Amino acid sequence: MPRSTATPEGAFTKASGQHPEGASRHRWWVLAVIGLAQVMVVLDATIVNIALPSAQKDLGFSDGDRQWVVTAYALAFGSLLLFGGRLADLLGRRVTFLVGLVGFAAASALGGAAGSFEVLVAARALQGAFGALLAPSALSLLTTTFTDPKERGKAFGVYGAIAGAGGAIGLLLGGLLTEHLSWRWTLYVNLLIAGLAIVGAVVFLQRTARDRNAKLDVPGVVLVSSGLFCIVYGFANAESHDWGSPQTWGFLIAGVVLLTVFVTWQTRAAHPLLPLRVPLDRNRGASYLSVLITAVGMFGVFLFLTYYLQQILGYTPVKTGLGFLPMIGALMITANLATNVLLPRLGPKPVVPLGMGLAGAGLVWMTGLDLDSTYAAHVLPPLVVTGLGIGLMMATAMNVATAGVDPRDAGVASAMVNTMQQVGGSVGTALLNSLASTAAQNYVKGKQPSPDLVARAQLHSYSTAYWWSAGFFAAGLVISGLLYRSGKVRALSVEGAPAVHA
Asked: Most C-beta atoms within 10 A of its C-beta, which of 27, 245, 303, 380?
């Protein structure tokens, strides 16, 4: 018999077959609120990029300092995600969601009004810190609100599409705001988004009971936050330093050591920050790896295709952002197809590898782009194919990564998804930038300098990045094909009894 006590918000009760009254009425509004928060967090990873030249001119900081406007956000966000996820479990997801929204909005206001480089970087770090509280709260709220398989599929289709398309949305919105208003509005726009989300959260989100007996694993927080900081910082340094620099490999080694100690500690801690039952579930572990690989490979599209459109085809920032819209459309179609049709019928094993294969094929296709290529004939087709693949992967992996998790672990399981996405993005940016830069240098070595040579060297560097991104997706195809279990996803209801998604 199911317990008669209050269930988590939106929980599906086996006794009645119905959602609790409040969640039944408002759960789709909850999805809208969560979607707003996710849009804000994801687009802020890229929206400031296009505004950087204007901000640099206005505040007068150097090229060497420029990367910190982006890196400060990634460092705080990536290193604090697991801590934020566990706080959501301990304090209640509604509370941490609201605190995250208010804090993110305040940090955005500070950054928009920044009169110096130091204030802007501090604001970006604060955005990352509050984002690390907000992102896992949002995903765990989605997990506990939508437990009916059919509705869960629709909800995760929308959420996966937002997560996959957020980078491109950031590029488009950043271009529009910078070109027509000011670089400061790439930060001020968050006040509008957060304001709407805060109102929606206050009205529609139900209070969640917290476990008063649970305690925070302080050594675990220190170990994993320090380890993730070193990993993200090490890869960020690879962009401005050589891979042989101690500031690169030193931090990477330190990060690996700290994370190894963290995993060992989690087997002994009385109240582990990351209970190993969460990532060691075979389907869940496969999903985390798939999200990581997808994030690495996606930068081959967003980063280097942006360079190609602007530097080779001469597109403006706004036109570049518009050029990504067909990819977003394709991504949204397959994200909903995957979670509503393919995943319930086939399970993740064929769906994620198919997405990896499509995305890889699209990137291989992009290696054929040259100086005379046109958007409609040569850029659009592989861009759409890549978007179709990313939609299949991202929505499916995010759904399975949080399916069946114990409600007390919903926050930390959701944080793992965001951690993999953030670390994957940092790895992709640093690694692909380094490989592309080396390819361009080797291309011009020993040749007579000319504008045409410079353009072809750039083209060669983009092609190199596409090949490597395709290689990551090929590896992801193999890994996901081997790790995922065959058949439909077997989940746990909120009561803890086995249930099969049909």
From this structure: 303
pLDDT 10s digits, 50-83: 777 778 788 877 655 666 777 788 778 877 877 8
Residues in the chain: 502
* Widest Cα–Cα separation across the chain: 80
339's CB contacts (< 8 A; 6+ apart) are: 152, 153, 154, 156, 157, 160, 395, 396, 399
H/E run at residue 460: helix 451-483
Mean pLDDT confidence for 151-176: 71
H helices within 17-148, ranges in order? Answer: 21-43, 47-59, 63-91, 93-112, 117-145
Does 248 lie in the same domain as 364?
no
pLDDT at 17 over 50: no
pLDDT band at residue 500 under the 50/70/90 scheme? very low
CB-neighbour burial class of residue 67 (10 A; exposed 0-12, middle 13-18, buried 19+)? middle
Three-state secondary structure call for residue 491? strand
Burial of 452 (0-12, 13-18, 19+ CB in 10 A): exposed
Cα distance between residue 64 and residue 45, in whole Å: 19
Residue % of the chain over a pLDDT of 90: 15
How many domains does the chain contain in total? 2
Q: Identify the domain containing residue 443 by its residue range.
A: 21-207+273-500
For the packed helices 410-444 and 93-112, what is the interaxial angle rounded to 10 degrees? Answer: 40
Q: Distance between CA 466 and CA 299 in Å, rounded?
A: 9
Report the alpha-carbon distance of residue 72 to residue 57 in Å, rounded: 19
Query: Distance between CA atoms of 80 and 83, rounded to whole angstroms?
Result: 5
Residue where a domain stops, chosen among 257, 272, 287: 272
Q: What sign does the CA torsion over 335, 355, 411, 493 have? A: positive
Tally of CB atoms within 10 A around 389? 28
Give the span between the Cα atoms of 282 and 180, in whole angstroms. Answer: 49
Same domain, 222 and 195: no
User: Rounded CA gap, 477 and 11, in Å?
Assistant: 34
